[in-house]
Amino acid sequence: MSIVKSKIRTIPDYPKPGILFRDITSLLIDPEGFRLTIGMFVERYQKENIQKIAAIDARGFITGAALAFQLGVGFVPIRKKGKLPGTTISQSYSLEYGVDHVEIHVDAIAPGEKVLIMDDLVATGGTLEASIKLVQSLKGVVHECATIIDLPDLGGAKRIKEQFGVNVYSICQFEGH
C-alpha cells in the first residue's frame, strides 16, 4: 500500500484554490505501481464471484477495465450524461465542486448480478452514491465499492457504508483535501 501511495502525486489548488488534487496519472505511468495496484484488487476480488465491474467515468475506467479483464467478467461504463448511446437511466449527484449526472445503459446489468463499483477515489461519496443507485435501480447487487484513494476527512466512505450498507475498499488514504 505504501508503494502505491508513494507513486500518487498531489497537485495543490486544482481544480480550484484550496483543493489538493490526488493525481493517479503518476501511478499509472509507473509499470510497477500500476501492476501492483491491479494485483491488489485482483487478490481482494478473485474469489468473490463478481459478475460485473461498473466503473465511473473516466479514471475509474482504467482500473475497472483492467480488473474486469483479469477476473474474466463484464465491464460496465458509468458515464457522464449524454455520453452513452442507446437507452440509459440517469442519476444526479453532488461533488466537492459542483453537481453533475451519471448514466448507465438499461441493459448493462441483469437482475441479481453481483457488481463491484470502481472509481479512482472516494471524497464526499457523491459519484459512488449515484452509481450505487443506478446499479440498484437495475436490480443489481452491489458487492462493494473499490477505489485507489480514500479521502477520509470528507467522509464519503463512511457515508456510503451508513446510507447503503456497502463497504468502500481503498488501497490508500490521504488526509486533507
TrEMBL record:
Pathway: Purine metabolism; AMP biosynthesis via salvage pathway; AMP from adenine: step 1/1. Gene3D superfamilies: 3.40.50.2020. Its EC number is 2.4.2.7. GO terms for cellular component: cytosol. It is found in: Cytoplasm. It is an enzyme of class 2 (transferase). Catalyzes a salvage reaction resulting in the formation of AMP, that is energically less costly than de novo synthesis. This is Adenine phosphoribosyltransferase.
